[in-house]
Amino acid sequence: MIVHRLVTFFFSKAVNVLDLVVKENVRHGDEYALLRLSPVKGRMPEVLPGQFVMVDVPGCRETFLRRPISINYADQRELWLLIRRAGVGTNTLCDLPQGAVISVVMPLGRGFSLDVSGNVLLVGGGVGVAPLLMLGKRFVARGVDVRFLLGARTSTEVLQLDLFRQTGETHVATDDGSLGHHGLVSTHPLLEQGAIDHIACCGPMPMMQAVAHIARQRGINCEVSLENHMACGLGACLCCVEDTVDQGNVCVCKDGPVFNINRLRWT
Amino acid sequence: MDLSVQIGKLRLKNPVMTASGTFGYGEEYADFIDLNRLGGIVVKGTTLLPRQGNPYPRMAETPSGMINAVGLQNKGVEHFVNEIYPRLRNLDTAVVVNVSGSTVEDYVGVCERLAGLKVDAVEINISCPNVKQGGMSFGTNCASAESVVRAVRQVWPGTMIVKLTPNVTNVAEIALAVEAAGADAVSLTNTFLAMAIDVERRRPVLSSVTGGLSGPCIRPIAVRMVWQVACAVSIPIIGIGGIMNGRDVVEFMLAGATAVQIGTANFIDPQATVKAIDFLDDYLTRHKFANARALIGAMELE
């Protein structure tokens, strides 16, 4: 109760439309950018690891809808969005100059479970590592033993490696073998043989499917973060549905984006 | 400023409602706006039995719009009556239930179930492009549109709005037919039948191949259709189609709409409805209108 009061004192109200200003745009190679944003006025709302935001793409004639972007890191003053150039919308976001103001609906969705124990492995691929940084920091703060397994095509695309290493034991797999294990994260010895009680995973669909498959075989509890196409992010448009074992079609934006693999039909 | 308007027996505190399927049951937007400020909430399409809707993917972004193929996913009228309605009845805004079906009996069944409740109106959806049976097919010819409206009229004494499809040769004809069959108002337009292809994969974007186009890209066509229907019928018209802001609300009312529904805009700006109400209030003052009703059909032709 006291914790809750402190939280509501330090953060602004629940879900909101906020204007955020770009404090810094840090390029990661040709394909990625990290936007460090802060509110034009007031404080940031409280954010849980694995939640996402809906970003309006400013001044872009070719986009209409907001873009869902997962939260890389957030505190009372800042929001970090790690973005991959996937199309015209994310291209525009990756090119935003310092001082640009964007409209953001946040925080949205249900994040990763925090109430876990034992050996926890956070598995990320490509830009999918984004939500795992905040999740890892939160686990460490709770005294949970956290390890990271990060995958990428090549060494220069292993994003935020230093920040992950500062947070916990970090293993890397690259498709070309330029850093760490040579091959997919799903063939990393840690995933196949290491002592693991819980996995949180975010990345390309084939990667999540492979990780979920191993988790299922080894009887490891596993959560994945989905990125189905959505229009609203609020559970209203019903476009981003995922077929679940227990409730049929549910909204990824509202019921997810994080799901236990036991609820999903594709695992 | 008096913003109130009349739709059948229903008095709306202002002309701005939300469009079915874009606003959930209202609760999804309670974090962003005071729902009691709205003229009305049209809840999502409700059918007699639960529907899972179409498989994913259901959405394609288009220039100034989007195509959806949700396919009337809902938990059925019984769920609405028991779980949703008790939460909505305490709101100080009109609650309109959008009713869909595959057969005439489906529409009648849903309306019978709703008849005992304090629902302010039903909106009979004979215009959904995303279902295999019924839906839009009822709204594309006069005889089948009339048959649904006549049957519902027998069991629903309250205000009946009929939601029309733009996917017809002459929308005014259909509007006249449902007016004659006993509708208290028409709402138009539902979405335009459309499709998008992923050219790299050479496959349709939507699981159902075709879907319904909404957003500001359809607005000029919807304004034209509202104007054509306004010239033909004497019952009130609720204008729908790509309204993004208060200016667009005024445009539909000038064309002859008594009220409007804001839909897709809610996805982009969850506060679009209340901003539009504020704009309308200010517009009426600036242009020295006595009230919102004076704006209906006030476009000047020479």
Can you summarize this structure?
The complex is a heterodimer of chains A (267) and B (302). Chain A is α/β, with parallel strands linked by helices and 267 residues long. Chain A has helices at 2-10, 88-94, 130-141, 161-167, 189-193, 205-218, 252-255, and strands at residues 16-28, 32-39, 52-55, 67-70, 73-74, 79-84, 101-108, 119-125, 145-152, 169-174, 181-182, 198-202, 221-225, 241-244, 248-251, 258-260.
Commentary on this structure:
The complex is a heterodimer of chains A (267) and B (302). With 267 residues, chain A is an alpha/beta fold. Chain A is built from 7 helices and 16 strands. Chain A has helices at residues 2-10, 88-94, 130-141, 161-167, 189-193, 205-218, 252-255, and strands at 16-28, 32-39, 52-55, 67-70, 73-74, 79-84, 101-108, 119-125, 145-152, 169-174, 181-182, 198-202, 221-225, 241-244, 248-251, 258-260. In chain A, strands 4-3-7-1-2-6-5 form a 7-stranded antiparallel β-sheet. Chain A has a 7-stranded mixed β-sheet with strand order 11-10-9-8-12-13-16, with helices on both faces. Residues 1-10 of chain A have low confidence and may be disordered. With 302 residues, chain B is α/β, with parallel strands linked by helices. Chain B has one domain: TIM Barrel (Alpha-Beta Barrel). In chain B, 30% of the residues lie in helices and 22% in strands. Chain B has helices at 76-88, 104-114, 142-155, 171-180, 219-232, 246-254, 265-268, 272-286, and strands at residues 5-7, 10-12, 16-18, 40-46, 59-62, 65-68, 94-99, 121-125, 159-163, 185-188, 192-195, 197-198, 203-204, 210-214, 237-240, 259-262. In chain B, the strands form 4 sheets. Chain B has an 8-stranded parallel barrel, surrounded by 6 helices. In chain B, strands 5-6-14-11 form a 4-stranded antiparallel β-sheet, with no helix packed on it. In chain B, helix 3 runs parallel beside helix 4 (171-180) and helix 6 (246-254) packs across helix 8 (272-286). The radius of gyration of chain B is 18 Å and the shape is globular. The two termini of chain B are 28 Å apart. The A-B interface holds A 13-17, 56, 62-66, 105, 228-232, 234-243, 248-249, 254 and B 21-24, 28-29, 31-32, 44, 52-53, 55-59, 61-66, 68, 70, 73, 215, 264, 266-271.
